[in-house]
Amino acid sequence: MTAALIVIDVQNGFCPGGNLAVPGGDAVVPGINALMGDFAHVVLTQDWHPADHSSFASNHPGRAPYDAVEMPYGPQVLWPDHCIQGTDDAAFHAELDSDRARAVIRKGMNPAIDSYSAFFENDRATPTGLDGLLRALGATELTMVGLALDFCVNFSALDAARLGYAVTVRRDLTRAIDLDGSRAAAEDGMRAAGITLTE
Ligand code: VGL
Ligand code: ZN
Q: Helix %, strand %, coil % for the chain, to 5?
């Protein structure tokens, strides 16, 4: 069994002071660094949007952040502008030990489709390349940590389970946005999909 640690979106934008700050987002960094040495492979993901990204409320006249809209690929929450390519908001948290990562998977680069999952864009079909990388490395067991529990960690874990990986989410090393109960819904959905959620 080869195990990989998938570190989701531990970027300034999702930490206090960031454009889409997750409460306590920075608190996960020391524990994630400490965990890296336990895994054969460490992969980081990075939300990496162009400024004209369709998930930004600013690109939808008359809409506000956190409104829900219907996109050709399904429902989409509109977000504040965040993690724009090359900005400080998109950079990894300065204390994250990013040097230890084998690879960085960037996502959300297509202006027309958001990408919560580390594996597929929100059309659930366009791959990011992560599955091919993990298969080539022989990784079958994935531990997921990072931000945010109810969006990118949730979608990544569900796709990983669907792809046949054994998935554990270290809840203590995640934090949630929690929009209208999205944390509880995500946790229920992950458990129903056979994902192990630690206490
Ligand atoms: C995320 C909302 C928008 C996340 C990314 O990393 O959970 N959430 N973009
Ligand atoms: Zn995003």
A: 30, 30, 45
